[in-house]
Amino acid sequence: MSNSSSVTPNDLSAFWMPFTANRQFKKAPRMFVGAKDMHYTTAEGRQVLDGTAGLWCVNAGHCRPNIVEAIQTQAAELDYAPAFQMGHPKAFELANRLVDIAPKGLDHVLFTNSGSESVETALKVALAYHRVKGDGARSRLIGRERAYHGVNFGGISVGGIVSNRKMFGTLLTGVDHMPHTHNLSKNAFSKGPPEYGTDLADELERIVTLHDASTIAAVIVEPVAGSTGVLIPPMGYLKRLRDITKKHGILLIFDEVITGFGRLGTPFGADYFGVTPDIMITAKGLTNGTIPMGAVLVTGEIHDAFMNGPEHVIEFFHGYTYSGNPMAAAAGLATLETYKDEDLLTRGADMGDYFGEALHSLADCPHVIDIRNIGLVGAIELESITGSPTQRAFSAFLKAYDAGVLIRTTGDIIALSPPLIVDKSHVDTLVDTLRTVLKSLE
Ligand code: PMP
Fold this sequence. Notes:
Blueprint: H1 22-27, E1 32-36, E2 39-42, E3 47-50, H2 53-56, H3 65-77, H4 89-101, E4 106-112, H5 115-132, E5 140-144, H6 153-158, H7 162-165, E6 175-178, H8 184-187, H9 203-211, E7 216-221, H10 237-248, E8 251-255, H11 269-273, E9 279-282, E10 294-299, H12 300-307, H13 326-341, H14 344-360, E11 368-374, E12 377-382, H15 391-402, E13 405-406, E14 408-410, E15 413-416, H16 424-440
Parallel strand pairs: 3-13, 5-6, 5-7, 7-8, 8-9
Antiparallel strand pairs: 1-2, 2-3, 4-10, 9-10, 11-12, 12-15, 14-15
Helix pairs in contact: 3-13, 4-13, 5-12, 14-16
The structure holds 4'-deoxy-4'-aminopyridoxal-5'-phosphate (PMP).
């Protein structure tokens, strides 16, 4: 038991940590107390190189003075404004700036507070769009195996991670999943999009045949599946999905929570793959990980269907108390300015080559069964120990942390996604540390 006066860093019982084995964590807590640019400072005063941009979100590096100042100024000037029936200038400005950098055609923005909320918002927009068009029979949603779309009910229903779903009983009905595209027997050690597997997109045709296109509202995919281990789609796969969805009047939703804001060396994954979805989901890098915020971009056609819809549809019945929150909007504006001033949204194109080559130099380390990369994101997949599918990567995570490098693991996959300000010496430190760590694994 604890009360507020006794909750100190020595009492770790009250905070039920997300996605963390609390019992293990309490035995050897790892705490960050500061951060600057590419590094965290631990509670013990150690510097830890951030190999993951926090949780794929701190794209411009930590504690950037202009973003800090924008938040401070906004907090003192206008802390909060009601989100319904009222506005404040910065939310409108941020929507405009987002539309400026988004793929052409995505020109209206709904704000949320996280990636998970952006996913729910996108799914609801898709369903409601068909209804306002008088096509309400289109209610099925199609996701993909090994997809992560946040933790809310819509997101775990279309998501494809068994452990995120199995504890929660009946989820959304009318959901189908396409197969994932990860194929180590054909595509191991690929650089960029792998060669084999384009025709996996045709699985969508199979689902259409099964249910009839007239019942399907939308398909949702991450351009590159991040959280389940950096699964890069085969060449041409997303284009083919786009063709099939278009042919059947199905909306295509890209979940760009990770791939948005420069991660692949282009502003959005849509730009990298040359495929524009009907709805694009973002969060994370939008405010450089500072104030929680997400944004969902939709085409004019979707937006106008609501604006010109039947008489009773005078508004979209959806939104959050904090939609377009002033401090988040100020953080977003300062973040986009930083990305622009420092060309960060395309920096991953050049640095990505160096990063990719460096990662692939680890190919001969023990237990490595795959290395893959695209832009400034990559993964090292390790052979799992039978009966313990996470043991090696988690052990690598702990050893790397002790050696001063933050990596992320999922199953026996190590994922790397440094802030986009990363330079060659950081990449060298990251990879040299990992080489030592991998060589020390059982
Ligand atoms: N979609 C994708 C593709 C993500 O990677 C994430 C978070 N890793 C989410 C949605 C959920 O975002 P949040 O944790 O901000 O709710």
